[in-house]
Design a protein that fits this description.
Elements lengths: L1 H12 L18 H44 L2 H37 L1 H28 L7 H25 L7 H22 L3 H6 L1 H10 L7 H4 L1 H12 L1 H27 L6 H7 L2 H12 L4 H9 L5 H61 L6 E3 H7 L3 H10 L9 H5 L6 E3 H10 L4 H50 L1
Antiparallel strand pairs: 1-2
Helix pairs in contact: 3-5, 3-17, 4-5, 5-6, 6-8, 10-15, 11-12, 11-13, 11-15, 15-17, 15-19
Length: about 500
C-alpha cells in the first residue's frame, strides 16, 4: 500500500494521472482497437514512471546514507573524534616508522661505505687487482698464451669484477639518484662497465675465429683495465691532494716550463754555433752537438743531471768555456727553476688541503643549521598557545601532525620511541620546555637509538645528581637545626647550674 501511494504521489507531482478506460456517451466501452491503444499507452507511461520512481528512490537512499554518516560522526561523542585522531596519528607513526626502518638500513649502509676500513679494503683490492694485471701481462709475454682465455686467470678477474660491482650497487643504494651526480661514481661505473664488456666478449667468443675478429677491441679493453688503479685517488686522500696540487699549479708550472725551454733554446743556439761548428770532424761532438735538436736534447739530459760530466768533458775538448757554461746552466735550471716548481706544487697542495677541510666544516655547519631550523619549526608548530614554552600535552598533540613527524624524521630522530622524547628532554622535571632546551635536546637525540639512550642516561644522571644535592641540603639544614637545639639546650643547662 505504501509503495502504491508513493508511486501515485510521484505521478501526481510529475503531472500524470492514472488513466481509466475511455467511455463513450452511451456508456459502452470502446472497441477492441481502442482498448489496445489505451492499454499500450497506459503500460508505457506506467513503466516510465516506475523506472523514474526507482531511480529517484535509489538516489534518495544514497544521499540519505551519505548525509547520515557525517551526521552520526558530528553527533558522536568526543571519544570517537579522539579515536579517529589517534588512529590517524598511529597510521602516520607506523608509516614513518617503516620509513625510519629503511632509513636506518640506509644509514647503516652509509656508515659502512664511509667507514675507513671499507675504503681501505677497496683500496687494497684495487692494488691487488693492479698486481694481478701486471702478473697476468708478464705471464702472457713469457708463455705466449692469453691469460684471459685460461680458467684460473679468467676466474680471478671475474671475481674482481663482481666485487667492484657489489661496491657500486652498495653505493647506489646509499646515494640513490645522487650517485650519478658525483664524478668519481661515474668514473668507477665506466671502468667497471668496460671490464664487464671485456668479460662478456671473452665469455661468448669461445671460437678462435671469433677471438681473432675482436682481438683489437679486446686488447683496447684490457689496456683500459689499468685505469682501475686511478680509483686509488678516491680512497687515498693524501695522494689525491698531491694530484690536485699539481693540477692547481698548472698555470705556474706552464710558465716555469716555458722558462726552462727558453733557457735550453738559447743554450742550444750558442753551443751549436761555438762547439758543434768548430768540431765538424769529431764524431763524439757531432753526436751530442751536431744540430739544434741534438744540442737541445743534450741540454735536457744535463738538466736531469744524467751523466752530465761525460757530456761536459766532450765539449771541454773543443773550448775552455764549456765547463763554466754548463755549470751556470745547471745552477739556473736544476737548482733554481725546478726547486721553484716543487715549491709551487707543495704550496698548492697545502692550500687545497686547507680548502678541503674548510669546505667540510662549511658543509657540516650548513647541515647543522638546517637541522636546527627544522627543530625550531617543530617547536613553533607544537607551541599552540604561543607562550614560548612547550608542555607535554602540546608535544603529544604535535606528534599527531604529519609535518612534525616528517621534520623529526628528517633531522634523524628515532620515531619508534618518539613519545618518550619529552620525558628525556625534561630533565629538570618542570613539565615545560623552552625553545633552547627543546632544540639542544633534539639535536643531541639525533641519530639511531643509541644516541637517544645516551642522552636519556645523561639526563637520568643529572636528575640523580640534583636529587642527591637536595638531600644533602636537607641533611645540612637538619644537622644545623639539631646543632642549634643542642646549643640552646646546653646554654639552658649552663644557666641552671650557674644559679
Amino acid at each position: 500500500r505504501g509503495p502504491s501511494r508513493s508511486r501515485a504521489a510521484a505521478m501526481h507531482q510529475a503531472g500524470w494521472e492514472e488513466p481509466s478506460a475511455p467511455v463513450v456517451r452511451d456508456g459502452s466501452k470502446a472497441d477492441n482497437a481502442g482498448h489496445k491503444t489505451v492499454r499500450s499507452v497506459t503500460f508505457s507511461r506506467k513503466s516510465s514512471l516506475d523506472s523514474d520512481y526507482n531511480v529517484a528512490r535509489r538516489s534518495t537512499e544514497k544521499s540519505s546514507s551519505r548525509d547520515v554518516r557525517p551526521a552520526m560522526l558530528r553527533g558522536g561523542s568526543s571519544e570517537v573524534s579522539d579515536a579517529i585522531h589517534l588512529l590517524q596519528a598511529q597510521t602516520t607513526i607506523a608509516d614513518l616508522a617503516t620509513r625510519s626502518y629503511h632509513r636506518g638500513l640506509r644509514a647503516k649502509a652509509r656508515n659502512l661505505v664511509m667507514h675507513r676500513y671499507f675504503e681501505a679494503s677497496i683500496a687494497f683490492l684495487i692494488l691487488l687487482n693492479s698486481v694481478y694485471i701486471g702478473v697476468e701481462t708478464e705471464f702472457t709475454m713469457r708463455t705466449g698464451e692469453d691469460g684471459d682465455l685460461t680458467m684460473p686467470w679468467y676466474a680471478l678477474d671475474m671475481l674482481f669484477v663482481l666485487i667492484f660491482w657489489a661496491e657500486l650497487v652498495l653505493r647506489l643504494y646509499v646515494e640513490r639518484f645522487h650517485f650519478f651526480w658525483i664524478g668519481w661514481n661515474l668514473f668507477d661505473f665506466a671502468i667497471v662497465l668496460v671490464a664487464t664488456v671485456d668479460k662478456i666478449m671473452v665469455t661468448f667468443s669461445t671460437d678462435s675465429s671469433d677471438v681473432l675478429d675482436i682481438v683489437t677491441v679486446v686488447r683496447i679493453l684490457r689496456v683500459a683495465r689499468i685505469l682501475r688503479i686511478v680509483r686509488l685517488l678516491r680512497f687515498c686522500r693524501e695522494l689525491w691532494l698531491i694530484v690536485l696540487g699539481i693540477f692547481s699549479a698548472m698555470r705556474t708550472l706552464f710558465w716555469a716550463w716555458m722558462f726552462i725551454a727558453l733557457v735550453c733554446f738559447i743554450g742550444s743556439v750558442f753551443i751549436t754555433r761555438t762547439i758543434g761548428h768548430e768540431a765538424r770532424g769529431d764524431a763524439d761532438v757531432q753526436e751530442l752537438y751536431g744540430s739544434m735538436s741534438k744540442t737541445f736534447f743534450t741540454l735536457f739530459q744535463v738538466l736531469t743531471v744524467d751523466d752530465w760530466v761525460d757530456v761536459v768533458n766532450v765539449a771541454d775538448q773543443v773550448g775552455w768555456f764549456a765547463k763554466p757554461l754548463f755549470c751556470l746552466f745547471i745552477v739556473i735550471t736544476t737548482f733554481a727553476v725546478l726547486n721553484v716548481v716543487v715549491a709551487v706544487i707543495v704550496n698548492k697542495t697545502l692550500e687545497n688541503s686547507i680548502n678541503h677541510s674548510e669546505s667540510q666544516v662549511r658543509e657540516m655547519t650548513k647541515n647543522i643549521k638546517k637541522s636546527r631550523d627544522a627543530v625550531n619549526s617543530i617547536f613553533s608548530i607544537g607551541d599552540a598557545d604561543g607562550d614560548g614554552t612547550l608542555t607535554r600535552q602540546e608535544f603529544m598533540e604535535a606528534l599527531r601532525k604529519q609535518d612534525v613527524m616528517r621534520f623529526l624524521h628528517e633531522v634523524g630522530v628515532d620515531l619508534r620511541r618518539v613519545d618518550q622524547l619529552f620525558d628525556v628532554l625534561d630533565f629538570d622535571e618542570s613539565g615545560v620546555l623552552d625553545v633552547d632546551e627543546f632544540v639542544d635536546g633534539v639535536m643531541q637525540a639525533r641519530g639511531d637509538a643509541r644516541s637517544k639512550d645516551l642522552l636519556e642516561l645523561h639526563c637520568d644522571l643529572w636528575r640523580w645528581e640534583q636529587s642527591m644535592r637536595k638531600k644533602v641540603e636537607e641533611f645540612k639544614k637538619e644537622a644545623s637545626r639539631s646543632a642549634n637545639l643542642l646549643h640552646d639546650e646546653a646554654k639552658s643547662i649552663k644557666d641552671v647550674v650557674g644559679r
